Amino acid sequence: IGGIIAALPFFWMIFGAFKSGAEIRQIPPTFVPQDWTLENFTTILNDPELPLATFYRNSLFVALTNVVVTLFTSSVLGFIFAKYAFRGRDVLFWYLMALMMVPPSVLMIPNYLILSEIGLLNNLWGLVVTVVVDPFAILVMRQFMRSLPDEQIESARVDGASEFRIYWSVVLPQVKPALATLGLLTFMFNWNAYLWPLIVLTENEKRTIPVILSWYSTQHSAQLNLVMAASVLMVVPVLIVFLATQRWIVQGLTLSGGK
Asked: What is the pTM for the complete model shown?
């Protein structure tokens, strides 16, 4: 029952995207469209002020690049914190965990000044370099990798495998569920990010989908059918990624890392 209630706004958005302007404003409202239409999507895709291909490209670049970078750094650091003993390991790990308590809004001004100094303002790479190290992602990978049998790693060392080979060939194949779950969360966070891209990106052709959607909603506040259709187009990539990774996500929630 709770799931149905939570999903109602989502289905209202989808059905609203296929309604005409008159039907979406009528009282009493209809939940399922009486006359299905694709005119809303046609209007958006043919709008010269809304080159969706450009904004999709920008958002996909930011989201996918952050996924790759975050998965690499978090898995490497998670492996180090989980399976290596060195002086100061616990102090360094808890320092990273303490960073999770710092509100993102506190870091915006320092990050903005850093991007200004290195010339990455109004640059898509500016949305990547500030999140290269993600404490939450490191915590997830470290906790998952701690359950891996130490005997497998020692056996690989005895066989002459390098440390990177152990990480790549022994550890990573066993943490695919954690990688898929973390990849989906990272993708969704960066795809839906609004405030930081709004601050960093100043030129319209470099904007991402959420920023443009907010602008479009303001410009067409009286045309809710168009706003609903634009929102559906924004959600579609996230649904595709979820469907592609849901098998691994379920495994990540139900299985441990050991095999």
From this structure: 0.83
